[in-house]
Design goal:
Length: 497
């Protein structure tokens, strides 16, 4: 006979087995519920959005189920990549910073991609074929510009258009601040070629495939139409190509656009080149001032001062980079150097005319031969009718004999007071005549000295004139060669562009 104590372990074991069976049953029920939910989600993914009679478009409940799947890429089969397309229109060039090598542009960007969960039948949804939805509720491809160097501060567009076939279009504005290798040597006739590389940041070609929505020619025509009257820059062409970026074992689809823009140089030609050319022309015309006049040097110094002030005022219009200096900056520097050379030439001529002539030095014979003969013939120096080319200097003949002869005529040496019957009367007048003769001799000597000084002054003036003509021709030759080189280089760049 079994006692009560013997049944207790058996009852405990049965209770434990009952609890295990209940826990197993609860686990099986949870798995069944999870399977039902998965089947419902799969049926949602594989079926179209539901619609109700009298209700335009898909129901909110069916779309909310799609919104809950935002973290997941909208593909029924994740092995199939999502197809994305992009196109843009270059609307404006906001700024070109040559020092920091940054290009700021404004784009109208349009993105397309396919959402396999947003599909419905227009016949069942009161003929609705397109609806707008908030972009923050949907999955969107992470398309970026690789050259981007600053935050986008443009106005956000929070909505997208969704077609009944699941194709999404997102139009938005993009203020693009991108890095660009700017070449400014040919400023203001420069042309810049900047690249915009669009691609996914994380998704490889296994997840997202990227392609252009329009042909590159169509995008170029649209951009030219809107950028035609947009400020300083003119769009020359918009080129592009699709390629695959490979990094390690991963690959990304990228689209590279090359935006070729050209600067409109009218502003800089009017404000920089034409005033500088006028100042150089005035400097050339200043050579026609008399070289022996001190006003020429003062005029040239005033001109240099004015040109320096002009460069300081226009310095903000000139681009500057650490890599190099634009050609127009070299042009201004050379023009200033030519003005300084012109002032030095004036100083040399003034020194020749004033310093040597005031000392009444004789013109050296080699200066007569080299300057007044060979250089004068070389530059076709025209002598005036009353002045002939100087010849070799002749030795001055003593002119005291005239005075002596005059004195000899007044008082012959062979005549003595004893032989002259009127010697008593002429003896009183003789000192006055001798004094008059002495005054005449001094006057003659002074006139002779003045005549000699005038001849020396004329000779040094002709030396200065010949040197002035020579340096003026050399100055004109330098300016002409320099102008031809600058104009030819700019013409070559313009023709190539």
């Amino acid at each position: 006979m079994v006692t009560h104590l013997q049944w207790n372990p058996i009852l405990d074991e049965l209770r434990r087995l009952s609890r295990d069976l209940k826990a197993t049953r609860l686990q099986i029920d949870k798995q069944k519920l999870a399977g039902v939910a998965n089947d419902r989600d799969m049926s949602l993914c594989c079926s179209k959005l539901s619609c109700k009679e009298g209700h335009s478009g898909p129901t909110h409940e069916s779309m909310q189920a799609v919104f809950d799947l935002k973290p997941f890429r909208p593909a029924v089969n994740l092995s199939n990549p999502t197809i994305a397309n992009i196109s843009f229109t270059l609307y404006a060039v906001l700024g070109v910073n040559e020092k920091t090598q940054i290009l700021t542009t404004f784009l109208w960007l349009r993105q397309f991609w396919h959402h396999e969960f947003l599909v419905w039948d227009p016949d069942e949804c009161d003929g609705v074929t397109r609806i707008s939805l908030p972009v923050e509720k949907l999955w969107s491809p992470d398309i970026i510009v690789y050259e981007f160097v600053d935050d986008d501060v443009s106005q956000a567009c929070p909505y997208v258009y969704v077609n009944h076939t699941g194709h999404i279009r997102w139009d938005r504005m993009l203020r693009l601040v991108s890095a660009c290798n700017l070449q400014i040597f040919s400023f203001p006739f420069d042309m810049q070629n900047c690249s915009f590389t669009f691609g996914s940041y994380m998704h490889t070609i296994r997840d997202v495939r990227l392609s252009p929505a329009l042909t590159f020619q169509e995008m170029s025509r649209n951009s030219k139409r809107y950028l035609e009257a947009s400020g300083e820059w003119e769009l020359v062409d918009l080129l592009g190509e699709t390629s695959i970026l490979q990094f390690g074992i991963d690959e990304w689809d990228i689209i590279t656009f090359w935006v070729v823009i050209k600067r409109r140089p009218v502003l800089y030609v009017v404000n920089l080149l034409i005033p500088s050319s006028f100042l150089m022309l005035i400097d050339i015309l200043s050579f026609y001032l008399p070289p022996h006049s001190v006003d020429r040097a003062s005029f040239k110094m005033t001109l240099i001062l004015g040109y320096t002030v002009f460069l300081l005022i226009m310095n903000d219009l000139l681009p500057s980079t650490a890599n190099g200096t634009p050609l127009i900056g070299i042009y201004f520097s050379v023009c200033l150097a030519l003005m300084v050379i012109s002032l030095l030439e004036t100083v040399i001529i003034t020194n020749v005319l004033h310093h040597n002539s005031m000392k009444y030095k004789e013109v050296p014979n080699w200066v007569r031969v080299v300057v007044l003969k060979h250089i004068a013939n070389l530059i076709c120096y025209r002598w005036t009718e009353d002045v002939q080319p100087p010849t070799a200097p002749q030795k001055d003949e003593p002119e005291i004999s005239n005075v002596d002869s005059g004195l000899w005529i007044i008082q012959p040496a062979s005549q003595t007071p004893a032989q002259d019957p009127t010697s008593s009367r002429g003896a009183a007048a003789l000192p006055e005549l001798q004094q008059i003769c002495q005054y005449l001799g001094d006057l003659h000597a002074h006139l002779t000295s003045m005549h000699k000084e005038s001849e020396l002054l004329d000779q040094w003036c002709h030396v200065g004139y010949v040197l002035d003509f020579l340096l003026f021709r050399i100055y004109l030759l330098l300016i002409s060669c320099y102008a031809l080189v600058i104009i030819s280089m700019w013409c070559v760049w313009i023709s190539q562009s």
